[in-house]
Amino acid sequence: MDVGQKNGKYLKIYREIKEKLLSGGFQEGDKLPTETEYSEQYAVSRPTVTKALNALADEGFITRKTGSGSYVRNQTGETKSKLLGLLIPGLGRGEIFEPISAQIAWEAEKNNYSLLWSGFDKTDKMHPLSSTAIARRYIDNRAAGIFFQPLELWYEAEEVNRQVVRVFQSSSVPVVLIDSDYTPYPQRSAYDLVGLDNFQAGYTAALHFLKKGLQRLDFLFRPYSAESVGLRIRGYVSALFDGGVHPDPRWIHGGYPEDPRFVKKMIQEEGARDIICANDETASVLLQTLEREGISVPEDVRIMGFDDVKYAQHLKVPLSTIRQPCDVLGQLAMELMLWRIDHPTAPPRTVTVPGTLVVRASSEAPEKGHP
Fold first, then answer.
1. Domain residue ranges in the chain
2. Residue 371, pLDDT score
3. pTM score over 0.85
């Protein structure tokens, strides 16, 4: 028997029992047929039945008692679902979300929870429908809580996020936001949030440049960036004021680093020489565009980013950055979710972690020739 056929039998048992549970074929507290009885009914081995029953137990439908059997859980009592949803649109596109999600998965396993994973492509024309459908699917599967990274870098991101949140609100499911709130600063949503201390990160990045005696420092971000980028900009502006440099709004650039016309205008016409980029991805693309245009880093322009993604140190010019402690963020996200499940009516909490300055060649000008 091949693997696909074997998995097909397990899924058939799982789906038919689950359908009977959801349709009222069993009552709360009822004992299910034994593994031997299911094995004979479906003409499969006991391990195949065990796999199906364990999956139902992981999702909170039944409870398994050694030496006694499987029972329908009392969902209105103290027994709770052991299933959590992970809705991370940036998964597969932003490197920081992979280690954060992996740590959440590890923490969930340690706490006897299972995870539902989903992501979606920001270029999908059915984006609003697919994202809300994912949220509804998690709720239909009786997820005890959902981790959600608000969508960014898309012109309809704000509306999509609000559609997803409306689905959450309809069920009162606990939600922990990852990385950023979905509401514009200084507003704060009613959900818990775990992320980098973005104000501190922006301040630290700016201070790194200001210590060199600069009287001008620019900031580059992509349009429709997350609210976390706005906090980084506020930290950057605050550092300028504290350093005795009056910030000029024209030093803050919203545009696409892959666009050579935009980049040349920023550098050659507007005079940007030292640039903080909203994240490492933006900085790395800017680095490539500058190279194609014959503008040298760090001789002509200095740049740095945020995140410290894996490739940052391996770029042609290693990238200075603010490192995100992704493992810690994943751990704290799970701890906050468990707390929220036990305290559903408590006010929203914000948990932030400071970043770490990592200095590499991209922000270090040669001793001679610095403007």
1. 3-65, 83-195+326-353, 198-325+356-363
2. 44
3. no
